[in-house]
Amino acid sequence: MASVWLTGAEWLAVLRIGLGLWWLESWRHKDRKGWFERGTGIAWAADVAGKHRWAAVRGGFRKVVEPRPRAMAYLVVHAELALGLGLVLGVLTPVALVCGLVLNLLYFILMIHDWAEQGQNAMMALISLVALFALSWQTWSLDSALGLF
């Protein structure tokens, strides 16, 4: 594979690290006090889910998320942090890529009518797929240094 400036594997590592930085920015800009103390994030998502045209989304949200809003708030916020750190540092990278892909797909489905969010979720999901199938943890990762995967 010919490439400019960096090797192909290094460019894939750049892509993986960039995705990790994107997750870290998602975590950084969250009002964690609002999410954890006032339940703003889950309340917003409940409002979106409640108006969703797909009954499966409305029902699934009611059964899984609404009964445990505090736990779900912590799960979402800390998942974004863990994904960001895992991808930037290259720790358990394939796991982080799969989990990030799942989270982006959940966000995509929940916010199917919010076109402003769809581009971000689609691009993050695409980057996750490319980074996963191109084994982007082979370069510049703790996984590689430790001989994992």
List keywords for this structure.
149 residues; mainly alpha
**Unreliable segments of 5+ consecutive residues:** none
Task: Give the end-to-end Cα distance, rounded to a whole number of Å.
Answer: 22 Å
Strand % is under 5%
Which overall shape is indicated by the principal axes computed on the Cα atoms? elongated
User: Major beta sheet, specifics?
Assistant: none
- β-strand number: 0
The helix/strand order is: HHHHHHHH
Total helices: the number is 8
Structural class comes to mainly alpha
Work out the oligomeric state of the chains in this entry.
single chain
Helix content: over 70%
Give a description of the structure.
With 149 residues, the protein is an all-alpha fold. The protein is 75% helix and 0% strand. It is built from eight helices and no strands. Helix 2 packs antiparallel against helix 5. The radius of gyration is 17 Å and the shape is elongated. It starts with 7 loop residues before the first helix and ends with a helix. The mean pLDDT is 94.
